[in-house]
Amino acid sequence: MFSWRKGHVVTEMVExxxxxxxxxxxxxxxxxEARIKKGDCHEFDELAQKAHIAxxxxxxxxxRVEEELYExxxxxxxxxDILHLLEKLDKLPNKADAILFEVSAELLLxxxxxxxxxxxxxxxxxxxxxxxxxxxxxxFTAPQEMRPLIADIDKLESSAxxxxxxxxxxxxxxxxxxxxxxxxxxxLVIQISKISDLSxxxxxxxxxxxxxxxx
Length: 215
Fold this sequence. Notes:
By secondary structure, the protein is mainly α. 84% of the residues lie in helices and 0% in strands.
């Protein structure tokens, strides 16, 4: 689909990036689930630290991809497409790391009365990212098969939006949560929901990229 000398090197590096981003979001999911189930626990701290390391590694890989493209790629258009895609993708591990830092720094605990709702919110947003991972992996091998996955990302993002509103309503309807905590929890819900928003944005970029390349 893409044309450049030593393109297989770039493909392998993009796959390396995707794998590490996938690991970061997986650790993010496990960390928040630990926070929901166990509250302030060592398990959350460990997983959050591992997610931070994975996010830093994503940055390192992205820089290596940029160097490879600028030094050896021959087609400027293809180079720009991949750089633009990585720039959008990189917002996802960055967001996951930032959310975990926010939870840790603000000593945020998830009220057990809302444990089920938060679990579903985290699960739905991370599932949206998982679909994106599959779509990006098809970019270099079977781009024609990406369209159904991108449609599924859009549907799941809409579900995540509905969940976001439902959880926020539940937070402010609860009589068991202090007013100051309600504000912090609302912001946490909004930030978690950005995982699906960002996934949808990357999906849109993939759609444009495939159409552009097939014209």
